[in-house]
């Protein structure tokens, strides 16, 4: 049987309505609309224009709500989100570099250029 990934398993699938998002976050719809107007989040839209949010967006909205609740300005929230994205990118690059470094190098001497120590010396 072919096991395909369901859309609901995708963290970027726009699954949640605004009502579901506001209930999960404990905020009201005008707050979500305001955050969207400020560019803190970009809701996906259905064909009928209704907002939909993915699990990843809900996580981001939780961070936004936490920062706003702590009194941070929208500009400050935007900067924190930008820095968190950058940190995530750097962590991915570091993980890739570590994985590359941990790969076996192959048999001893493989890929090494021949040096003088590999040449037979004069008879002695």
Strand-residue proportion: 5-15%
β-strand number? 3
Write the CATH fold name: Multidrug-efflux Transporter Regulator, Chain: A, Domain 2
Strand count, sense and closure of the main sheet?
Answer: 3 strands, antiparallel
What's the number of structural domains? 1
Total helices: the number is 4
Q: Based on CA inertia axes, which overall geometry fits? A: elongated
Helix/strand order: EHHEEHH
Helix content: 40-55%
Polypeptide structure, described:
With 124 residues, this protein is mostly helical. It has a single domain (7-100), classed as Multidrug-efflux Transporter Regulator, Chain: A, Domain 2, CATH 1.10.1660.10. It contains 4 helices and 3 strands; from the N terminus they run E-H-H-E-E-H-H. It has a 3-stranded antiparallel β-sheet. The longest helix has 29 residues, at 74-102. It is elongated, with a radius of gyration of 26 Å. The chain starts with 15 loop residues before the first strand and ends in a 22-residue tail after the last helix.
Could you list some keywords that capture this structure?
124 residues; mainly alpha; Multidrug-efflux Transporter Regulator, Chain: A, Domain 2; 3-stranded antiparallel sheet; 4 helices; 3 strands; elongated
């Amino acid at each position: 049987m072919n096991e395909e990934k369901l859309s609901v398993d995708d963290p970027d699938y726009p699954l949640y309505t605004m009502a579901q998002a506001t209930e999960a976050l404990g905020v009201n719809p005008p707050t979500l609309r305001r955050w969207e107007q400020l560019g803190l989040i970009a809701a996906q839209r259905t064909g009928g224009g209704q907002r939909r949010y993915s699990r990843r967006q809900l996580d981001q909205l939780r961070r936004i709500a936490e920062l706003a609740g702590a009194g941070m300005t929208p500009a400050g929230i935007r900067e924190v989100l930008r820095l968190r994205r950058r940190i995530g990118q750097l962590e991915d690059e570091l993980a890739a570099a570590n994985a590359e470094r941990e790969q076996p190098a192959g048999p001893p001497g493989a890929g090494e250029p021949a040096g003088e120590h590999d040449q037979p010396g004069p008879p002695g």
